[in-house]
Amino acid sequence: MRNWMSILLVTVSVLALLGVTAEAAEILPVPDGVFGLPNVSETSALAFWIPLEEGGVVSGVRWFNNDGNMVFPEVMAFAGAEDYPEPLDQAVAIATEVCGSNLGWSTVVFDQPLATTTDGIYVVFRLPTSGGFQHAGEGGGAGFGLVTGQAVNRCWVTTTGDRWSGFTAARQMAILPLIAPEKATGTMLVLSPGMETQELGPVGAQDGLKFDSQISAYPNPFNPQTTIAFELPHSGFVSGAVYDLRGRCVRNLWSGQAIQGRQEWIWNGRDNEGRTVPSGVYLVQVTQGSRQRSLQITMTK
Question: Lowest-pLDDT range, 15-29, 49-63, 120-134?
Answer without folding.
Answer: 15-29
